[in-house]
């Protein structure tokens, strides 16, 4: 009944079925079709006359390949036979009039007329549209997952390559990411840059998930390449495009491209294919990266090769940056060493100096030490630090050092006068920034007694250590150089004198020895005094080396200057052989701590790789 109390149009139920937008048909208790709606005709390509009266199972129910489905396996019509009542499904197919099948999603409900069982109502629709949508959604999800995996790999690779670990450590970590994420084994071959082996390939890292020991045995310099193998290797290491390799070709043909370099890899680690990516950056060729697949894994796809090529570019940039770092650091340290003066050899005095560059930067600094004889026979000792850490600071350091040398030679006056003159000269004739300086005179006859006369311009205090191990700081400070005259403060530098006991050690040092980000200067000075006391009996060279080793300074440049008063009858050599009073020579034998510099003594370059954390 309608809302107005009028009877429904007898055609209303048919109109609903006609416009329902899904197929509907009925069957009697024998499974014969008794009614179909227009959507059924459209979906099956059959008219009502072709359907009504026919057995629905025999006419329509098919497997995906079009073959008949046995009646006993028909879940849709099983309720008619008193079987299990299955009300819906999506794994069935109906046969169209043109002989094709259509996957359907269906549901059934019992049909009752006048209170008695009269058959079934079957509602169905073309499931291919839903299945296609599901497949597209699944493919889209899979693509997103693959993209996410690659982005995560790129992020991990970037994190490894951007770390401050040494380049060799980054390469090892990189291969751990690539295997097994992109391949079953991987190798990195780099061109040697040593003079004697320039251009020779060295297999610096190999990683295999299945054969780790065999992979490690493959590392090392590669044998000289046959003349026929050099062009393809040159293309692989110096080109722009990756190269695909087949294991069958490499193992079966000794003349195949890259067979000379990659045959041992396939022979010992297995695999069916590989991709070789050149490591090239800023027009420099560094080597090649190889990633291989083994077993049932498919060959690398085009997208994976693009990803691998990008990783190769990133690795090449790391190697190129390391090269630039080494070159600039070597230039900077060479300049710094040339700016540091040699130490004089003076009878009854032993001296040693050390310079250790900052380990966390490639810039040189303004730290310096100096020692020279004055015209009146006194020994001048200087330790200083100009503000800044760059070439400009080193240049200003050289200016301040030369000014101080000239002033100390010309003016045989108390150190405070020399410091005041230096302050005025720096302020009025140079653009150098402020500096901290200790200037001292060691005065006395050859056999002693000796006396230290010094002035301190804002620098860490000198440390005096007796031969018994008593250590104390000589504390008394004045303003920094470049402060008083520049600000018209009229400040003064107090002169201080101290008697030097026989066989004592005087240590001058810069703040990098005792101060760092993780250690306050008070703690650093306490540690310095403690270790200096313990090392009092060592030779002056061992004294400096052990201090550097035990304090392990990091983060800033460090300069040390140590003076030891020899016992009576011992010369500068420590064995009784006197040295010429004004002779100059090496600061000490070549026994410096790793990374330190001794003037005029060849030292091993400490910057063999990027700085470590």
What does it look like?
It is a single chain. With 613 residues, the protein is α+β, with helices and mostly antiparallel strands. The chain folds into 3 domains: 12-126, 2-Layer Sandwich (Beta-Lactamase), CATH 3.30.450.20; 152-328, GAF domain (Beta-Lactamase), CATH 3.30.450.40; 343-585, PPM-type phosphatase domain (Phosphatase 2c, domain 1, 4-Layer Sandwich). The chain is 34% helix and 25% strand. It is built from 16 helices and 24 strands. A hairpin with a 5-residue loop joins strand 4 (88-95) and strand 5 (101-113). Helix 5 (128-161) runs antiparallel to helix 6, helix 5 (128-161) packs parallel to helix 11 and helix 12 (391-410) packs across helix 13. The protein starts with 11 loop residues before the first helix and ends in a 28-residue tail after the last strand. Mean pLDDT is 81; it is low at 571-613.
**So what's the overall shape?**
elongated
Distance between the termini: 86 Å
Helix fraction bin: 25-40%
The Cα radius of gyration reads 44 Å
Number of strands: 24
As an assembly, this protein is single chain
Low-confidence stretches: 571-613
Mean pLDDT comes to: 81
| CATH class annotation of the largest domain | Alpha Beta
Continuous helix count: 16
Count of domain modules? 3
SSE layout and pairing:
Layout: H1 12-18, E1 23-27, E2 33-36, H2 38-44, H3 48-51, H4 56-60, E3 61-62, E4 88-95, E5 101-113, E6 116-126, H5 128-161, H6 167-181, E7 185-191, E8 201-208, H7 212-217, E9 220-221, H8 230-238, E10 243-246, H9 247-252, H10 259-269, E11 273-281, E12 284-293, H11 302-339, E13 343-345, E14 349-356, E15 367-373, E16 379-386, H12 391-410, H13 415-429, E17 435-443, E18 450-457, E19 463-465, E20 471-473, H14 484-487, E21 496-500, E22 505-509, H15 521-534, H16 540-551, E23 558-565, E24 583-585
Antiparallel strand pairs: 1-2, 1-6, 3-4, 4-5, 5-6, 7-8, 7-12, 8-9, 10-11, 11-12, 13-24, 14-23, 15-16, 16-17, 17-18, 18-21, 19-20, 19-22, 22-23
Helix pairs in contact: 5-6, 5-11, 12-13, 15-16
């Amino acid at each position: 009944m309608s809302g107005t109390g009028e009877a429904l149009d007898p055609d209303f139920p048919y109109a609903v079925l006609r416009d329902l937008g899904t197929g509907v048909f009925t069957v009697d208790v024998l499974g014969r079709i008794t009614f179909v709606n227009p959507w059924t005709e459209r979906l099956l390509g059959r008219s009502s006359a072709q359907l009504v009266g026919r057995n629905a199972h025999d006419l329509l129910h098919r497997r995906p390949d079009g073959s008949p489905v046995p009646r006993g396996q028909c879940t849709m019509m099983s309720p008619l036979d008193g079987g299990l009542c299955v009300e819906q499904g999506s794994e069935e197919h109906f046969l169209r009039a043109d002989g094709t099948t259509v996957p359907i999603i269906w549901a059934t409900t019992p049909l009752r007329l006048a209170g008695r069982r009269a058959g079934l109502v079957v509602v169905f629709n073309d499931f291919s549209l839903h299945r296609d949508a599901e497949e597209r959604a699944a493919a889209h999800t899979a693509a997103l997952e693959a993209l996410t995996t690659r982005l995560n790999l790129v992020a991990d690779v970037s994190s490894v390559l951007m770390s401050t670990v040494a380049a060799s450590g980054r390469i090892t970590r990189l291969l751990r990411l690539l295997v097994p994420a992109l391949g079953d084994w991987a190798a990195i071959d780099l061109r040697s840059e040593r003079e004697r082996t320039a251009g020779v390939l060295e297999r610096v890292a190999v990683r295999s998930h299945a054969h780790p020991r065999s992979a490690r045995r493959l590392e090392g310099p590669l044998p000289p390449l046959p003349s026929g193998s050099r062009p393809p290797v040159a293309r692989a290491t110096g080109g722009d495009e990756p190269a695909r390799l087949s294991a069958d070709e490499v193992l079966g043909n000794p003349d195949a491209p890259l067979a000379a370099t990659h045959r041992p890899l396939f022979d010992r680690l297995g695999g069916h294919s590989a991709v070789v990516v050149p490591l090239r950056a800023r027009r420099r060729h560094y080597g090649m990266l190889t990633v291989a697949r083994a077993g049932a894994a498919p060959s690398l796809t085009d997208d994976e090769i693009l990803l691998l090529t990008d990783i190769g570019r990133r690795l090449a940039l790391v190697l190129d940056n390391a090269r630039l770092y080494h070159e600039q650091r070597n230039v900077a340290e060479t300049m710094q060493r040339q700016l540091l003066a040699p130490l004089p050899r003076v009878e009854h005095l032993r001296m040693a100096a050390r310079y250790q560059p900052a380990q966390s930067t490639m810039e040189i600094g303004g730290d310096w030490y100096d020692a020279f004889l004055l015209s009146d026979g006194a020994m001048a000792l200087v330790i200083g630090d100009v503000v800044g850490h760059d070439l400009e600071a080193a240049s200003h350091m050289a200016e301040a050092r030369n000014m101080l040398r000239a002033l100390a030679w010309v003016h045989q006056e108390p150190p405070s006068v020399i410091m005041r003159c230096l302050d005025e000269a720096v302020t009025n004739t140079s653009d150098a920034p402020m500096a901290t300086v200790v200037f001292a005179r060691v005065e006395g006859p050859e056999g002693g007694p000796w006396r230290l006369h010094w002035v301190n311009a804002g620098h860490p205090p000198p440390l005096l250590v007796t031969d018994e191990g008593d250590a104390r700081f000589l504390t008394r400070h004045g303003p920094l150089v470049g402060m008083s005259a520049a600000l018209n403060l009229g400040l003064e530098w107090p002169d201080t004198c101290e008697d030097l006991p026989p066989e004592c050690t005087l240590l001058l040092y810069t703040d990098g020895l005792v101060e760092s980000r993780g250690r306050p200067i008070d703690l650093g000075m306490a540690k310095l005094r403690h270790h200096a006391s313990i090392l009092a009996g060592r030779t002056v060279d061992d004294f400096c080396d052990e201090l550097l080793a035990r304090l392990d300074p990091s983060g800033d440049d460090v300069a040390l200057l140590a003076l030891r008063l020899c016992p009576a009858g011992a010369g500068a050599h420590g064995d009784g052989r006197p040295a010429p009073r004004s002779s100059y020579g090496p600061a000490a034998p070549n026994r410096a701590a790793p990374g330190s510099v001794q003037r005029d003594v060849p030292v091993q370059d400490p910057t063999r790789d990027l700085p470590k954390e």
